[in-house]
Design a protein that fits this description.
Radius of gyration of chain A: 25 Å
Number of strands of chain A: 28
Strand order of the largest sheet of chain A: 18-19-20-27-22-25
CATH topology of the largest domain in chain A: Spore Coat Polysaccharide Biosynthesis Protein SpsA, Chain A
CATH architecture of the largest domain in chain A: Alpha-Beta Complex
Largest sheet of chain A: 6 strands, antiparallel
CATH superfamily of the largest domain in chain A: Spore Coat Polysaccharide Biosynthesis Protein SpsA, Chain A
Largest interface: A-B, 59 and 59 residues
Structural class of chain A: alpha/beta
Oligomer: homodimer
Helix content of chain A: 25-40%
CATH class of the largest domain in chain A: Alpha Beta
Distance between the termini of chain A: 60 Å
Shape of chain A: globular
Chain lengths: 486, 486
């Protein structure tokens, strides 16, 4: 029996999850921003969506993961994986895109990387980093089903049984059943429908939401790319060959990457191939595509309110408050979403939460950094929070993680004072290096090389007071940098 | 003609405005708080209500003012008067209450002070510090009318022609007209009515709102107090005799002050006297008693929105945003009041803005300082803003005004670093005093006496980083203090 022999052989291919952790960070602004998009948002349970995705993926993986993310977010993606498992971090690979180019190029590069990692073909399980799936058991069972379909050379997509006539998703039209296991052939991929069409789709029972999660063998997807998108695959091979690898990170040259077509795997391959199978998900699923979706996930009090943070609700109904350190008092309001961050506040009617994208668009138009950046900025060495940004000074709180070191640098237009408030900092100023204990301070004159380092096993916290006339991040002349930023 | 002779004699009494600048600061929370109540709130035009009241009062005064306020607010009341006129500040008097005791004791103390200032009887014009009156001409004309009535020995109250059946005010029932000038005898003072009664009052045309502004001669009000509230007057005389005067400030001892009855001048005198005249105001008037009242004063765009600060409105209607430095984005909301401050946010439906008092009550119950204090705190020497309040450090931005000096002090549980960011500070640490220029810093060890002084003509700004385990304002041991706080 040739076909069962083939099945048993290819079923042994290692399963390598591919986590796509990108995103513009617009739909959940102001918590999500381009420099800290949705997968990196910490949920009330203390975990990020990315962390949850890592756990879900490692549960079915035969080894480590492949994570595809933006170059600027690579260290954050690594940090989140370190929270899950040091071993997973050691066996995983990070493909860092210098610029976003949609899912087809990302998956093609991941397929090439996977074959190097597996030293031969592998099965890829492509997952978005910003989906919420609570039932990991059901998810794993569906992945096992997808694996058998991949072994039968299908391109597999995971479909979600619609709960309402959503117009924001594409749909899969199911064809013939593939045996008794629930899987179906996919007859068609259909675009985001209008409301009437969506209603008809849901009523028919023949349509599933297209989740954006996929399974296929590297052999199969590369063959399909070769057949349906040969130019793209050729470009991807050029980019892949120009890669440079540093530890577990793979970097690609910007110019070659720019030349890649910005196209989704759905357009490039899935919609064109006759050999696509759908696994209807038996797990719960949300892509958390709006603040309304977030509020739908929260548990509510009898008045329909949910509140995180320091809040005081009086006569409020059906209102969701996602607070920060500030006190949020809401009186007599209904159907609101209130999302507070240190530098931007959103107050939206529940039914209009999709319009938050317009806010981000307007901010981007006026080049307002609050579209993309938080007051707290993550860095490879730790993080900083801006406490004051005045005409005469800028004050930051810095956290330097154990073993990390900032670049050797100088500033032309500002002097700096560092006061260590906890931990012991190793400081270099000019030719001198010394330890600075908690409660002590040092002065860095203008145009003087300096460096801050944590040689201990506990984080350092310090307050930096910059005095001068210009405080931009571009007044940093770097001489040495562990993180390749010179 | 005895009466006209008497008129011409008493009409010559000097007019001394008495500004009552107290208030709990609850109704306009979070902008107004007990430590910085409504009269001290800065309006969009850059002036405070108190400043506007000063100008209005000085326009009719024959000399300086008497300002009655809380002891903690005295320096602020002075600072606001200095913004109006140095001469007015030099000729005015500040009666500082160690604890709030309503309007009857305040007015009685003001009457005694006025007779000392005038070296004999005077006419008092009692004004609340938190009313908004735009038409200063009409106001002055009404004050002149009130003066003639005072000269005829009336107790005068200013009444406001109702614009709606307000249930939050007391009403004056008008009696016989007093000549052709518009003034009437007051037949009765009536309490805050229910809605139906208020409607009937407004329909009748015989009722005015009781504004809380009064006029009377010191002779007349002291005689009336002696007749209707003799015990209170006796207590007030005790308190007055125990006063201490420092420059233009009059201080009263706390224990004696506590013994004063907490009673309004309406209850104590006005409602009991048959000789009360009402001047129906010909000026516009608002007591700005709620955020809704504030929003009613603002100009609106065609959708009924008004926005101060950094705001972005999309599809909002009939919404008022009073922002601060943070970006406030409002989407698809209606009939909201959004008031943002650095540490507390209010989102209220327009029709429920009175319930903000409940928020303040709840905060007071849990001893939350955000009921009473802002992150920026005014001090006699200038102000400070809390930039960071962490477990391991506290960071403040300090402003020291020209010629001012902080107390000589020490802290047991924290060291401090001062970095001057503009101006030149005179610093004393232990036995050493020196000038610290902009861009330079100094270190103040635990248990070390230190002092900060501005000997220049321009404000100093500096960043203070406190490091230690406790950062409360009560860890200040003061040795010398120009402002009497030792």
């Amino acid at each position: 029996m040739t076909s069962s022999k083939k099945l048993s052989m290819t079923a042994k291919l290692p399963l390598i999850p591919v986590i796509l952790a990108g995103g513009a960070g617009t739909r959940l602004w102001p918590q999500s921003r381009r420099a800290h998009p949705k997968p990196f948002m910490r949920l009330p349970d203390g975990e990020t969506l990315l962390e949850k995705t890592y756990r879900r993926a490692l549960n079915v993986a035969d080894g480590g993961l492949i994570v595809v993310t933006a170059q600027d977010l690579g260290f954050l993606a690594e940090r989140e994986l370190a929270r899950v498992s040091a071993q997973a971090l050691a066996t995983s690979h990070f493909l860092l895109e210098p610029i976003g180019r949609n899912t087809a190029p990302a998956i093609a590069l991941a397929a090439l990387a996977a074959e190097r990692i597996a030293n031969g073909p592998a099965t890829l399980l492509v997952l978005a980093a910003d989906h919420l799936i609570a039932d990991v058991e059901a998810f794993s069972a569906d992945v096992r089903l997808a694996q058998t379909l991949c072994a039968d050379d299908f391109l597999v997509t995971f479909g979600i049984r619609p709960t309402h006539p959503e117009t924001g998703f594409g749909y899969l039209k199911l064809g013939a059943a593939l045996g008794e296991n629930g899987a179906h052939v996919v007859d068609a991929f259909v675009e985001k429908p209008n409301a009437d069409t969506a209603l008809a789709y849901v009523a028919s029972g023949d349509y599933l939401w297209n989740s954006g999660m996929f399974g296929f063998s590297t052999t199969r997807i590369l063959a399909a790319l070769g057949e349906y998108a040969p130019e793209l695959l050729a470009q991807v091979r050029v980019v892949d060959q120009a890669r440079s690898e540093v530890r577990s990170q793979t970097h690609y040259p910007l110019e070659a990457f720019k030349a890649l077509e910005d196209i989704s795997i759905d357009y490039a391959v899935m919609e064109r191939s006759p050999a696509v199978a759908a696994v209807p998900a038996r797990f719960d699923w949300s892509d958390i595509g709006s603040w309304r979706a977030v509020s739908d996930l929260n548990s509510r009090d009898p008045d329909g309110n949910s509140a995180q943070g320091d809040t005081l609700l009086i006569g409020a109904r059906n209102t969701t408050v996602i607070g920060s350190a500030r006190l949020v008092a809401a009186i007599g309001v209904e159907n609101l979403l209130i999302v507070d961050t240190p530098d931007a506040l959103l107050v939206a009617h529940r039914d209009h939460s999709q319009a938050v994208k317009q806010v981000v668009d307007q901010l981007n138009l006026r080049e307002d950094s609050r579209a993309t950046q938080h007051l707290t900025v993550q860095r490879p060495w730790g993080s900083y929070s801006i406490l004051e940004d005045g005409a005469d000074c800028k004050v930051k709180r810095l956290t330097v993680l154990p073993g990390q070191v900032l670049s050797l640098q100088l500033h032309h237009q500002r002097s700096e004072h560092w006061t260590v408030v906890s931990g012991t900092a190793r400081v270099t100023i000019g030719e001198r290096s010394f330890d600075l204990e908690s409660g002590h301070a040092c002065f860095i004159p203008v145009n003087t090389r300096h460096r801050l380092e944590n040689q201990t096993a506990t984080p350092i916290h310090l307050i930096e007071v910059q005095v001068g006339s210009y405080f931009g991040e571009d007044d940093i002349v770097r001489f040495e940098d562990r993180y390749g930023r010179v």
